Known about the structure:
Blueprint: E1 2-5, H1 16-30, E2 36-39, H2 49-56, E3 60-67, E4 73-80, E5 86-90, H3 92-95, H4 97-100, H5 113-124, E6 129-133, H6 144-149, E7 153-155, E8 174-176, E9 186-189, H7 202-206, H8 217-230, H9 232-239, H10 246-258, E10 261-263, H11 265-272, H12 275-281, E11 284-293, H13 301-311, E12 316-324, H14 332-337, E13 339-342, H15 350-355, H16 357-371
Parallel strand pairs: 1-2, 1-11, 5-6, 6-9, 9-10, 11-12, 12-13
Antiparallel strand pairs: 3-4, 4-5, 7-8
Helix pairs in contact: 1-16, 8-9
Amino acid sequence: MRILIASDKFKGSLSAREACEAIRRGLMAGSAAPLEIRTLPISDGGEGLARSLTDAKGGTWKTLEVQDAQGNPTVAGYGLSADGATGFIEMAEASGLEQLGSKKLDPWRASTYGTGELIRDAMDSGIRRLILGIGGSATNDGGVGMASALGFQFVDAAGNLLEHLPADLEQAVAIQSPNTIPGIPVTVACDVENPLLGLRGATRVYGPQKGIAEEDFSRHEKRLSHLCRLLGEEGAAAAGGPGAGAAGGLGFGCRVFLGATLESGFDLVARALDLAAEISWADFVVTGEGKIDSQSLEGKAPCGVARMARAVDKPVAAFCGRCEPPESDPQSLEETFGTIREIGKPGLSLEENLRNGATHLQESATALAQSW
């Protein structure tokens, strides 16, 4: 029997790679028949994207010291494909909310500069293509920090270079492009449709989680509007595009400073991993994530895997820490995923379940294999 294990992370407990391996061990332990198993860690374009693609492509992971979102030194990493041609980066590594931990948020100076440092290092290594995930942002800078790290210069009326971005962005009267940035294709994994500005824009929709108070919405909006004006017609056109407001406007910044293409995170991952061919190979497909609920049906990776498998009549099973079917349509999850197995132990606290995630997942996979 040929099994494809294509699991996402169990947030707070297991990475996608660790989850796939725990499932593999459990299936092997519980099956009376010989199994041929392939593991394929997946992501929907958010956290875990870079490592999932790096692992799947047999690549290497490189770490370096960069700036976090508040300008402090931190260690972050990115992936390179085995042939060195493709770089895999996610902005959360350097400029993410979780990366800041318990530090007090400062949305006025929070910057994507560290993400730009990762991109610059990858470009200097000679990559010919870049895949960038932009989920989990701690910033609302329109991508100016990233641009500054890549050599774009923001100058004031006196011709002085502005060094404190985005704090001093409104003092800029011109943006000077670098001569050294390579013109490689950049694809951004982005699963939101929000524009840069307005009621559905970066500031009003995502700003509060980054520390932006409601009374400061207009000031942040004014700063991003100024950036658009500096970029002229190109800026105005890009600001209204779907995904421009993603990651505090980094979607916008990637378009105007890198000429990037934005696309659905899961679609990008599925194509990069040749997921359709892997599903075609398998007799049975196993997927999973930490929580399966109504949001899982809105573009999350395990749902994408299940739908692709069922479209070609391959049976599917899914593991999760917790399953919460929507009250309005309680059968929708089972109809999408087939068999769903919760791995959490009712008698344990959340912290204990998270700490023992690998053991619980392996045990559940063993039980699944024994049921065959």
